[in-house]
């Protein structure tokens, strides 16, 4: 008798849209008011609220509940909320309900129940000519509900039932996906998510989606594993909206011109990427396919004699690997060990015909041979996704040829062997032959923690136990110290109210808090009147009990009783977790994400960024092995947004090949992708855990500099600035593609939106405060990633986030100075060009400029169009010189080509300095000399401005009288003469021939230089 199969409990996801209220709606009923109601449309379901009669600030507080048909793809669904004026409550003249505004939200903005918040959305127009105003308050969340066998999902409303037949009639046949009106695309297989274009259209690139998984579960390949029984039908495959509407050139390799700018410039390597490409398009189309021999050891049975911990040896002609000790299930015989382990061995087709694969079973305690299986590699099948996984089979264990007692070998082993690439599902968790130290060498995906700004507003404190024996006319100095983890801040001195014996501060303190919100805020009230600090009381507030807000709404303050005695008083605090800010953990100029903390405020992505890490060339040795031989164990780390990726470590190789591909969703193209290369030290057991991984180099790529849907395959130099100067550590080969619709409204509209979230402009943070919070956020991210497995080192996180970018150095100061000079070079060039024109160095050009000047003076309405046309022509001209490849690190711009050794030593010095006093004195004197030059330049600028003020300040009466008289004469002249004649006369006088010029300075310049300034009133040393 068999037990009937019990199906797992079914769940249904419900989306709840609570319509709270609306503000400042537009009157549409012809009587100065409106009778609004709200209609919400989600996944084909349409529901509405009740009507509020003649109310421009209506309040509903009504929940609208929807059923999510596909919870896995909910984040790609769209919720549309529209507000209408009900014509039934108007003057009766309207034939339809008037539109009052709408809001479009995506699934990425929905929160799970318990994390929702009230958000006010600005009502948007339906067309360009719509007149809309106001905002609507919504609270949106979802939850999963368990269904019993007899329960069924509630029937949909009549409106939905009426629309369902029409949807069924318009639904395309299975295996087809409607991309837009008039086009039908064929659906791919489960593992191939590319969208082939119909006949006649340009070939589109392959877009790979890697879902960002929440921590701590991390994966490299987020493609869902194929079931072992059969493939699902094509019609049931989910398709992402990004894939549906994006068109790009699949696998296109663009020939980019190489500019010989030295050994430190990026190079195009797309021509090098040749090989035996199969007809099938692989999911990893940006990288080179690397073939591996996969061996999956599942379990064994009937092994004799039984062993406590048998292990498996896998051997080919060029590779040897050993499995972990076997496991045994409870209450199972000891002759049935289990491993469930996958090996990936490097595979070469040239040696496949003559090579064999040996899989043998051994006893770990006695090293006795327990049997084995031998395979001919020429007979091993090739598996290429979307093929189904190869099912493991039982093989009879056989004895060796030299075994004198073959009868003692018995049992079977279950395994599967196939040839695949790095796109195989088993590759992320496999033991790879070029990375034997498994614990710290596997590819992993990490997630940064969700960070909040904690705002602590200390308002006042009452009934404090102040010492009574204070000296006369001495006010107590009471301060409040707030601690959150390693962060600590102290308020200023409180002002005392003598009538009520209370102290007032009304001061905001900001901290960085990370999820899970398990810490507590500790607030200490200190009396610092005397030398010894006296503690007047303290309170502890858990972060989980603090209210969260995502906008500028007011948060109510609360009284908290102080602890530390019978009655120590109370303190009035306003606490809130700010979700409307973006917590910066990177330098602002290389930031990769600007989204706020609250998910409800996220906007839909505008594209997908795909990165293929091909490999590295010519890496320098970072450590020494036995016999003095150099070695490098390199791995890559890429960071964009909240997602970090880490490639596997290729051991003992100066030319490692990773060929791993990753994707990110792009919410703002004006962001930067950072890729760093490091040498792995933590994979060795005999090395202490605090031994940092050595940095090899870093590359940054700004997403906005990439053309849409184009593949860039380039080699970038890995540069490191050391105490001895600039050092090239090798080159890294990357393939990058930004897949997005070209010049669509959604993409172009990003450039007109604020860079940071709304709260950064309503309640801005100071520069010094922002820098301190960034340091705290960087430390929290490093601590979070250090708890992962394998851990990411603190030095890796700080290097990727540019934690030391604010440190001063002479080299950075020079670089910024030359950047300013380069920005002003166009103005200097324009001044030189005008000087050449007025000196008649090219008479033809000067005559043509006279003619153009006459035309612009006689037709002044052409001045502005001519100026903009000139800018357009300049832009078209410079299109020829546009960058052909994404730029890497610029050594000349960084002033790193020839740096003074002492300046480099000063840049690497600690804070405070650890150098001898004589070196510090020398550097201080050098800094004083540089500051003296800056002081002189600032004084000259101030002098010129004071001379302009002296024209009418009567500090020099004769000069002011002369200036006023000249201004009066100019006024009369301009009034009496035509302005065009005056403009022509002044222009021709300025462009007069040098034979009519006086080499001495003009009278106007002489007059200006004689004006007094305030420099003679400065006090100087004798």
TrEMBL record:
Alphabetized InterPro entries for the sequence: C2_dom, C2_domain_sf, C2B_MCTP_PRT_plant, C2C_MCTP_PRT_plant, C2D_MCTP_PRT_plant, MCTP_C, QUIRKY-like
Membrane topology recorded in Swiss-Prot or TrEMBL: Multi-pass membrane protein
Main location: membrane
GO cellular component, one term: membrane
Transmembrane segments: 846-879, 962-991
Keyword vocabulary terms for this entry: Calcium, Membrane, Repeat, Transmembrane, Transmembrane helix
Record's compositionally biased regions (Basic and acidic residues): 161-171, 265-277
Region entry Disordered, spans: 149-175, 258-277
Location relative to the cell: Membrane
Domain C2 per the UniProt entry, residue ranges: 1-120, 273-395, 432-560, 590-716
PANTHER family named in the record: PHOSPHORIBOSYLANTHRANILATE TRANSFERASE ISOFORM 1, PROTEIN QUIRKY
Family designation: Belongs to the MCTP family.
Protein name: C2 domain-containing protein
């Amino acid at each position: 008798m068999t037990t009937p199969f019990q199906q797992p409990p079914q769940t249904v996801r419900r989306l709840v849209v609570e319509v709270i209220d609306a503000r400042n709606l537009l009157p549409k009923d012809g009587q100065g008011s409106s009778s609004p109601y709200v209609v919400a449309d989600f996944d084909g379901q349409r529901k509405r609220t009740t009507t509020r009669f003649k109310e421009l600030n209506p309040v509903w507080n009504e929940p609208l509940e929807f059923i999510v048909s596909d919870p896995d793809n909910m984040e790609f669904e769209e919720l549309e909320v529209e507000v209408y004026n009900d014509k039934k409550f108007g003057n009766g003249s309207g034939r339809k309900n008037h539109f009052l505004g709408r809001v479009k939200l995506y699934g990425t903005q929905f929160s799970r129940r318990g994390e929702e918040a009230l958000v006010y959305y600005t009502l948007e127009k339906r067309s360009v000519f719509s007149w809309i105003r106001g905002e609507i308050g919504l609270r949106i969340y979802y939850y999963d509900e368990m269904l019993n066998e007899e329960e069924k999902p509630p029937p949909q409303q009549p409106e939905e039932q009426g629309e369902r037949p029409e949807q069924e009639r318009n639904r395309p046949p299975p295996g087809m996906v409607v991309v837009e009106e008039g086009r039908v695309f064929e659906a791919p297989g489960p593992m191939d998510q590319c969208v082939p274009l119909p006949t006649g259209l340009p070939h589109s690139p392959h877009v790979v989606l890697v879902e960002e998984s929440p921590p701590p579960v991390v994966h490299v390949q987020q493609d869902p594993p194929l079931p072992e029984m059969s493939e699902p039908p094509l019609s049931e495959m989910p398709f992402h909206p990004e894939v549906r509407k994006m068109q790009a050139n699949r696998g296109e390799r663009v020939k980019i011109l190489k500019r010989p700018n030295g050994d430190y410039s990026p190079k195009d390597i797309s021509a090098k990427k040749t090989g035996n490409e199969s007809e099938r398009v692989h999911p990893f189309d940006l990288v080179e396919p690397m073939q591996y021999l996969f061996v999956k050891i599942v379990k064994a049975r009937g092994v004799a004699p039984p062993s406590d911990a048998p292990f498996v040896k896998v051997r080919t002609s060029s590779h040897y690997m050993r499995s972990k000790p076997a496991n045994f299930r409870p209450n199972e015989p000891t002759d049935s060990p289990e491993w469930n382990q996958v090996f990936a061995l490097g595979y070469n087709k040239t040696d496949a015909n003559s090579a064999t694969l040996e899989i043998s079973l051994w006893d770990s305690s006695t090293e006795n041979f327990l049997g084995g299986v031998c395979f001919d590699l020429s007979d091993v099948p090739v598996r290429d996704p979307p093929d189904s996984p190869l099912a493991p089979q039982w093989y009879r264990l056989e004895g060796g040829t030299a075994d004198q007692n073959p009868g003692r070998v018995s049992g079977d082993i279950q395994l599967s062997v196939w040839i695949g690439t790095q796109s195989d599902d088993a590759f992320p968790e496999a033991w790879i032959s070029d990375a034997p130290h498994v614990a710290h060498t596997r590819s992993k995906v990490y997630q940064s923690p969700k960070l909040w700004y904690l705002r602590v507003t200390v308002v006042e404190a009452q009934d404090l136990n102040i010492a009574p024996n204070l000296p006369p006319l001495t006010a107590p100095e009471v301060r409040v110290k707030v601690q959150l983890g390693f962060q600590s801040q102290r308020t200023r001195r409180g002002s005392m109210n003598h009538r009520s014996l209370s102290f007032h501060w009304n001061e905001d303190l900001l901290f960085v808090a990370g999820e899970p919100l398990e810490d507590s805020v500790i607030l200490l009230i200190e009396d610092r009147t005397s030398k010894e600090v006296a503690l007047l009381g303290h309170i502890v507030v858990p972060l989980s009990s603090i209210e969260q807000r995502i906008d500028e709404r007011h948060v109510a303050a609360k009284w908290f009783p102080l602890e530390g005695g019978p009655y120590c008083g109370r303190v009035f605090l306003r606490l809130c977790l700010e979700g409307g800010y973006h917590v910066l953990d990177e330098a602002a100029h290389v930031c990769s994400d600007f989204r706020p903390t609250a998910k409800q405020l996220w906007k839909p992505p505008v594209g997908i960024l795909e990165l293929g890490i091909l490999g590295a060339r010519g890496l320098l040795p970072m450590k020494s092995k036995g016999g003095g031989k150099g070695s490098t164990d390199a791995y890559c780390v890429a960071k964009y947004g909240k997602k970090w990726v880490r490639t596997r470590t290729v051991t003992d190789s100066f030319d490692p090949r990773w060929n791993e591909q990753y994707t990110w969703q792009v919410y703002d193209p004006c962001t930067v992708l950072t890729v760093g290369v490091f040498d792995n030290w933590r994979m060795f057991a005999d090395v202490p855990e605090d031994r940092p991984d050595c940095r090899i180099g870093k590359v940054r790529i700004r997403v906005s500099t990439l053309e849409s849907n184009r593949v860039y395959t380039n080699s970038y130099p890995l540069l490191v600035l050391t105490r001895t100067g600039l050092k090239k550590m090798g080159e890294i080969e990357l393939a990058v593609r930004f897949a997005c619709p070209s010049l669509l409204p959604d993409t172009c509209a990003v450039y007109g939106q604020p860079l940071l979230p709304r709260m950064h402009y309503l309640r801005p943070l100071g520069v010094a405060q922002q820098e301190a919070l960034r340091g705290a956020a960087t430390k929290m991210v490093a601590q979070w990633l250090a708890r992962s497995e394998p851990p990411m080192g603190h030095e890796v996180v700080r290097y990727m986030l540019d934690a030391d970018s604010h440190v001063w150095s002479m080299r950075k100061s020079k670089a910024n100075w030359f950047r300013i000079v380069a920005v002003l070079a166009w103005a200097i060039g324009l001044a030189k060009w005008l000087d050449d024109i007025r000196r008649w160095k090219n008479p033809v050009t000067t005559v043509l400029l006279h003619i153009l000047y006459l035309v612009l003076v006689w037709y002044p309405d052409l001045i502005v169009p001519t100026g903009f046309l000139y800018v357009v022509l300049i832009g078209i001209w410079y299109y020829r010189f546009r960058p052909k490849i994404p730029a890497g690190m610029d050594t000349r711009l960084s002033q790193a080509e020839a740096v003074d050794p002492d300046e480099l030593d000063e840049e690497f010095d600690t804070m405070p300095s650890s150098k001898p006093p004589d070196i510090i004195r020398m550097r201080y004197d050098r800094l004083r000399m540089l500051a003296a030059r800056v002081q002189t330049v600032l004084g000259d600028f101030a002098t010129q401005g004071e001379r302009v003020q002296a024209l009418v300040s009567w500090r020099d009466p004769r000069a002011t009288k002369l200036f006023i008289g000249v201004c009066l004469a100019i006024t009369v002249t301009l009034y009496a003469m035509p302005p065009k004649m005056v403009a022509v006369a002044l222009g021709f006088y300025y462009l007069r021939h040098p034979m009519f010029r006086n080499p001495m300075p003009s009278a106007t310049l002489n007059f200006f230089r004689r004006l007094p300034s305030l420099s003679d009133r400065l006090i100087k040393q004798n």
